[in-house]
Amino acid sequence: MTEFQEKSTVTARESLAGDVFRLTVQAPRIAAAAQPGQFVMVRTGDTLDPLLRRPLSIHQVLSDGRLRLLFKVVGKGTGLLAGLGPGLKIDLIGPLGRGFSLAPAGPACLVGGGMGMAPLYFLARRLLQVRPGPGDDQILLGARNRAELELPAAEFSGLGYRLHLATDDGSLGHHGLVPELLDDVLPSVRQVYVCGPYPMMRTVALKCRTAGVACQVSLETHMACGLGVCLGCAVAVAAGGYKHVCKDGPVFAADEVLWKM
Amino acid sequence: MENVIDQGGVDLRVRIGGLHLQNPVLTASGTFGYGRELTAFVNPARLGGIVAKGISLAPRPGNPPPRVVETACGMLNAIGLENVGVERFISDKLPFLRQTGTRVIVNILGDTVEEYGRLAGRLAGVEGIDALEVNISCPNVKKGGVAFGTVPETAAAVTMAVRAAVDVPVIVKLSPNVSDITVIARAVEAAGADAVSLINTLLGMAIDSRSRKPCLANVVGGLSGPAIKPVALRMVWQVARAVAIPVIGIGGIATAGDALEFLLAGATAVQVGTANFYQPRASEEIIDGIRDFLRQEGEPSVRNIIGQVRVDEQ
Ligand SMILES: Cc1cc2nc3c(=O)[nH]c(=O)nc-3n(C[C@H](O)[C@H](O)[C@H](O)COP(=O)(O)OP(=O)(O)OC[C@H]3O[C@@H](n4cnc5c(N)ncnc54)[C@H](O)[C@@H]3O)c2cc1C
Ligand SMILES: Cc1cc2nc3c(=O)[nH]c(=O)nc-3n(C[C@H](O)[C@H](O)[C@H](O)COP(=O)(O)O)c2cc1C
Ligand code: FES
């Protein structure tokens, strides 16, 4: 596995909805090596506060060495990133971690909640390259409201997948949580990929276990390095002890994870 | 010694007791893994040395998450000394470290004085280990969990147990969570330490006001990074004047300028810790920066600046 540090140039910054931004950066070496589910560690500035890099999933890889990040402003680091504009430099390390396994044994279902949609878009595109077409694959997406869901949903449906949407406030699609959409879909799929808030991933993981469907989850933990040296990104595993999200993950087989109830 | 030529006409070599370093920049324990992890960014052969992640006799799983949280210009960690244990260290980790072309310093920890002694004994004579660094910031389980490094007698007892077990230089890594660090430094010097390194992390805490819970599962954790540099520098300066053995400076070092301050304060070498996390090339950049500084200052050797802080006599 090769990792690069690139002082990349921002080529575009788009505000998608309220506090959700899409940043396009020129990072040819990272883009060329990236696999769906992998992430980058982003330096949000040159000063000592914030000190640590921020982990962000690789949202999309464009053919000319650009890659895209999709993120929500939740604090200081993401706030600084949202303030970047074309021509400015951004220091990235990546691609990091182990991404999704790309060989589903049959129809697949991608389940994304909130910013969990970020890595799934890259996955959805890559699956189209390794398989003949979307076929019976399906995508379930959820967000707080229409504003947050509309644009990402349009991008996914542009790929030709069958989409099912849910919003917390009912302003678009099903009024409720994404996992509620899963029950209808599960009987016809062999592989589920999920990324989103922890409770949602846990619900999806348990539904898949009950249904006997393979499930891959992309986990989040606080990370000091993203490089396997701080051991700060521990997650408890069913076999006992811990694994490290930045090296062993962020994608895990759902049954490997010891889910907190 | 190897690589002297590569240093742009400046002599960067330093000596820590019997340990000869090609330059004074080491990577700190727990921030550089077992040497292999950051090779995409750093050429280990250029480093003065690598201090490996702390190891214990038996493997340790570490603390439950969350284990790390960022704070202003720093971070708190409560990793819980997760490590593979000494046997797997020797079989799986040491072979890579041994062939990096730099000095390998093995950081050790234990629950009891006897455990430190047994661990050092297991490492005695193992090829490819250039020195031991003894982490005495761990709780002494036989003494109600009080850290070895906060009591002069237990700090000395651990030092003696390790010293008696090995022939390689023994560096004792001091805890800053004490009222007078020079007392501990003198105690371990008298007990046979070849050098002291300082500081380990400062005990700290952070609370999430919304959930009203501590940010770390362990409640408290060790503060590191640029936030602790002034404290570390002060302690290095105090200890360097209190002991005759070499001092290795640690704490918030992220640039050559930081490293030079520690050298001027009396450190013979420095360790780069948290900076490796956000700037994995930091250690190599610091070596280059020290060399450039010396060249500009017309100093032929890094040894000329060690301890040369100009303090006006009152
Ligand atoms: C592998 C991985 C991929 C991710 N991908 C995305 C993505 O594509 N889009 C997106 O919007 N978010 C993503 N996140 C979450 C993102 O890293 C956090 O939202 C971000 O670090 C918050 O930084 P901040 O300074 O704005 O917030 P603050 O709350 O000020 O951050 C303080 C500290 O907490 C850490 N932190 C806070 N929230 C999280 C979190 N949820 N996960 C991990 N660390 C956190 C920060 O990194 C920082 O060290 C991902 C997280 C991981 C682990
Ligand atoms: C995540 C993390 C893990 C650490 N693990 C160890 C360890 O195993 N043994 C040890 O002696 N010190 C350990 N330390 C302490 C560092 O080696 C160093 O003394 C301290 O972080 C201060 O230096 P810094 O500010 O440059 O990081 C650890 C520090 C961090 C941040
Ligand atoms: S984030 Fe540092 S080891 Fe995973």
General description of the model:
- The complex is a heterodimer of chains A (about 260) and B (about 325).
- Chain A contains six helices and 16 strands.
- With about 260 residues, chain A is of the alpha/beta class.
- In chain A, the strands form three sheets. Chain A has a seven-stranded antiparallel sheet. Chain A has a seven-stranded mixed sheet with strand order 11-10-9-8-12-13-16, with helices on both faces. Chain A has a two-stranded antiparallel ribbon with strand order 14-15.
- In chain A, a hairpin with a 5-residue loop joins strand 14 and strand 15.
- Chain B is built from eight helices and 16 strands.
- In chain B, the strands form four sheets. In chain B, strands 3-4-7-8-9-10-15-16 form an eight-stranded parallel β-barrel, surrounded by six helices. A four-stranded antiparallel sheet of chain B has the order 5-6-14-11, with no helix packed on it. A two-stranded antiparallel sheet of chain B has the order 1-2.
- The longest helix of chain B has 16 residues.
- The relative contact order of chain B is 0.17.
- Flavin-adenine dinucleotide binds next to strand 4, strand 6 and helix 2 of chain A.
Given as residue ranges, the uncertain stretches of chain B (5+ residues, pLDDT < 50) are: 1-5
Helix content of chain B: 25-40%
**SSE class of chain A:** alpha/beta
Largest sheet of chain B: 8 strands, parallel, barrel
Poorly predicted parts of chain A:
none
- Radius of gyration of chain B (CA) equals 18 Å
